[in-house]
Amino acid sequence: MKIGPKVYWRKTSGEVIFITPQVESSSARETTKEDDMGFYPKLKGYDAEQVDVLKLEFDKYTEDFQKAINYRVNPNTKTMEFTYPSNSGSEPEKPLTDQVAELKWADLDNKEAIAGLVQIVMENAK
């Protein structure tokens, strides 16, 4: 069973308080917010009403967490935002993982459009 990490963050600011480790084990089980807040020392003492949790897929954003110099959860969209060395001092960016996925889809769209144009040109050349 693969269980992704959970990001615990302050509801008001988006500041990340703690990220649980991801687990891959046949004996692993999902834990609740209450379980985690009672187990992890970094979460003890926080008011559960002021903390939210973002459950991530297994291996989601692994590279982003390694490369980013800062990260937070956007309290409005409840999505991760990362600041990378190349954009330090500017606004946080979408995760690199999401940017790559968007570029792949855009590339496919462009290839389909080019194929359609080639077909039209070939039909008109007859």
Backbone shape: elongated
Low-pLDDT parts are none
Portion of residues within helices: 25-40%
Please report the number of helical segments. 3
Alpha-beta classification: alpha+beta
Query: β content, as a range?
Result: 15-25%
Q: What's the main sheet like?
A: 3 strands, antiparallel
What is the element string, with H for helices and E for strands? EEEEHEHEEH
Number of strands: 7
Taking all residues together, what is the mean pLDDT? 85
Ends distance = 58 Å
Strand order across the largest sheet: 3-2-5
Instruction: Supply Rg.
Output: 21 Å
Mind sketching the topology for me?
Elements: E1 2-3, E2 6-10, E3 16-19, E4 23-24, H1 33-39, E5 51-55, H2 62-67, E6 70-74, E7 79-83, H3 96-124
Antiparallel strand pairs: 1-4, 2-3, 2-5, 6-7
Task: Write a short abstract of this structure.
This protein is an alpha+beta fold. It contains three helices and seven strands.
Task: Please describe what this structure looks like.
By secondary structure, the protein is α+β, with helices and mostly antiparallel strands. The protein is 33% helix and 22% strand. The chain has three helices and seven strands. The strands form three sheets. The chain has a three-stranded antiparallel sheet, with no helix packed on it. The longest helix has 29 residues, at 96-124. It is elongated.
